[in-house]
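U., I forgot to send this yesterday:
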Amino acid sequence: MIWLPIVIILGFIIISGIRIIQQYETGVVFQLGRYSRTLDPGLNLIIPLIEAVRVVDMRVLTNDIPKQQAITKDNVPVSINGVVYFQVMDAQNAVIKVQNYLYAVSQYAQAALRDVVGGMTFDDLLAERQKIGDEIEVIIQKQAESWGLKVTAIKLLDVDVPEELKKMMSRQASAEREKRATITKAEGDKLAAVNLAEAAKTMTQSPGAMQLRTLQTIDGLGPTASNTVVLAVPVDIMDSVRALTARIIEKKQE
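Result:
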């Protein structure tokens, strides 16, 4: 029975030395505070009380970039937030060379975001979000490589501006729409005038075209009794009718 407690203690020590590393993880082993080796996925053994393991997730990680106040090149204040996607490529460096790589990437992304936005105009900021993300990615990647990290993408989520600027942008957009509508209407009027001129020219060259057009207009009025049609008859025709009527009256009197 004396050996039973010893066996239990030994069993506990052996069990405490077992480490199971998942497929998407890597274990960094420190022996008495010094880097010793890395553990591959699967079942691994370490020396209890002498070795310690720091498990690192090797999948693509996401980290929010908190909303940042920045001023563009043309002195427009904006608030921007985003997200950074990165992956640990060297677990040893990620653990040893930086205290907390998640926090470090977030802080570095914030600083890079302010620097990039400060070098662009407000219009470029709204139109070229992808370009801004690419520039921030390049800046972060230069530092992240020394930490054993790889930045895969930077995405900007929201760009907020002061309410006064929003109202000004709304008025500008409305004025731009009115301008386009006026130009479109003017072009339509011009085209209609050209077509009318061509139609008038055609009717002038064809003696029966005007009469045909008049008949088409009358036919298009429909059979409604409330419609009143006024026809303009040329003066020479009216004079001819009057002369003919006067002759008829003279013959009757004879």
